[in-house]
Q: What sequence folds into this?
């Protein structure tokens, strides 16, 4: 993963540099520590805290190896900017205090820093990354996520040459480009094409993706299947190891079947189900019974 920040983006550059500096850096002897009771978890972009038991076990044996990043709140308490997973595991391990690194950040800078730190996680899955990037852009631009998504889509349409989308020269669009350059993960064009569709996934696919049970490419393929039962069956096969190539073949076959015109005899079957043959006029009833007898013989 590239972490070279863009020189056009001072805060993101500082945040990424600070994270790079902290990464793997051991706790220094005599460094600052704070009691757990003085630490306040902040609103957290991260929703999953996996492996806490294992981390707590490691902390019991070796202690907290990397300091938490905190900012002073001015009342003897400190807000956690980065390291809430370590904080939770330290509580589980029965520690009373943890090593910290104190930084002076505004509330907005702290939120941005937490969002950037969340995006550097090794266990980040594509759906979490998508939501994280949008949250970062939302915070940075001061716009709701829905407006950020709309901006990105208008930018793409203008790039494609569609008329009526003069947005690329705007400060917001330029800022979007700077943020993606600073993160160094992908271009904004690739993000719009490959990641925004993940926002509209059915709940079962979204859950599988959040759990890391399937790759996002498989989720996008499965999204095309409208038959819920079939999609669920294919989802289980993907979890069991069905390759993307085989999945695409299955999805193509399903879509072809969905688009196939209804067989003409379906109307005849429906009409028979609704008709009481005994009430038909004698000649008509005899003719229908004869045809049904012939059909029965042919199928038998």
A:
């Amino acid at each position: 993963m590239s972490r070279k920040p863009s020189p056009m983006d001072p805060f993101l550059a500082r945040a990424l540099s600070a994270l790079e500096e902290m990464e793997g850096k051991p706790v220094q002897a005599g460094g600052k520590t704070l009691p757990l009771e003085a630490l306040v978890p902040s609103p957290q972009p991260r929703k999953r805290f996996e492996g806490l038991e294992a981390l707590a076990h490691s902390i019991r044996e070796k202690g907290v190896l990397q300091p938490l990043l905190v900012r002073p709140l001015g009342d003897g308490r400190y807000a956690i900017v980065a390291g809430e997973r370590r904080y939770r595991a330290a509580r589980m391990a029965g520690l009373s205090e943890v090593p910290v690194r104190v930084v002076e950040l505004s509330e907005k800078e702290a939120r941005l820093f937490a969002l950037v730190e969340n995006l550097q996680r090794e266990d980040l899955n594509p759906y979490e990354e998508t939501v994280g990037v949008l949250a970062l852009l939302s915070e940075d631009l001061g716009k709701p996520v829905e407006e950020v998504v709309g901006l990105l889509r208008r930018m793409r349409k203008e790039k494609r040459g569609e008329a009526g989308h003069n947005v690329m020269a705007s400060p917001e669009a330029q800022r979007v480009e700077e943020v993606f350059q600073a993160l160094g993960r992908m271009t904004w064009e690739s993000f719009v094409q490959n990641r925004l569709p993940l926002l509209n996934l059915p709940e079962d696919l979204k859950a599988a993706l959040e759990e890391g049970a399937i790759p996002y490419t498989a989720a996008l393929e499965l999204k095309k299947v409208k038959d819920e039962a079939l999609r669920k069956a294919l989802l289980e096969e993907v979890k069991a190891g069905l390759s993307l190539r085989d999945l695409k073949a299955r999805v193509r076959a399903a879509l072809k079947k969905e688009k196939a015109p209804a067989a003409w005899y379906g109307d005849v079957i429906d009409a028979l189900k609704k008709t009481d043959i005994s009430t038909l006029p004698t000649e008509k009833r005899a003719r229908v019974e004869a045809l049904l007898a012939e059909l029965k013989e042919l199928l038998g």
In short: Residues 126-198 form one domain.
